[in-house]
Amino acid sequence: MRLSSGPEEEPPLTTGMHFQVAGQVTRLGQTHEVLIDIDTGAQISCISEQWAREKDLKLYTRRYPELIAGVGPFRSLARGAYWVRYTLQDSNGVVREHYKLFLAIERESDEAPLLIGQPDLQEMGIDILLRPKGAKW
Fold first, then answer.
1. pLDDT tens across 82-115, in order?
2. Would you say residue 7 has pLDDT above 50?
3. Rounded to whole angstroms, what are the CA distances from 68 to 45, 63, 80, 124?
4. What are the φ and ψ backbone dihedral angles of 106, each rounded to 5 degrees?
5. Dihedrals φ, ψ of 121, to 5°?
6. Which of 2, 5, 6, 26 is least enclosed by beta carbons within 10 angstroms?
7. Model-level pTM?
8. In this structure, what DSSP letter does residue 52 have?
């Protein structure tokens, strides 16, 4: 199901187990367009290990949580952690830039490279409102 996210120039939101929105990641002056999964049920934010390596993101060199457990049978081992500077534009046109630590995991090819979980959404002040004619966030 695709939902209109607002003004015509904005990319549509995709729903499923999460929203998928367009964003940008910046590293050493280079900006990369990226799809970002927004998941209000996730308690962590994570990144595709392969994508983080391809984009030469800054590796976190200290200890980080290694075992990730989710709802149901989902279990994964973190394969590292990376600092990510990313930018999002919400359905009201507000642009937010953040620099956060993301745990690196193996993401499926049909999933966005980044997933932002509920704690980081709250910290950013993002609320998701589902409406019959679309979503606001």
1. 999 999 888 788 888 999 999 999 988 888 999 9
2. no
3. 11, 14, 12, 23
4. -85, 115
5. -60, -45
6. 2
7. 0.77
8. H
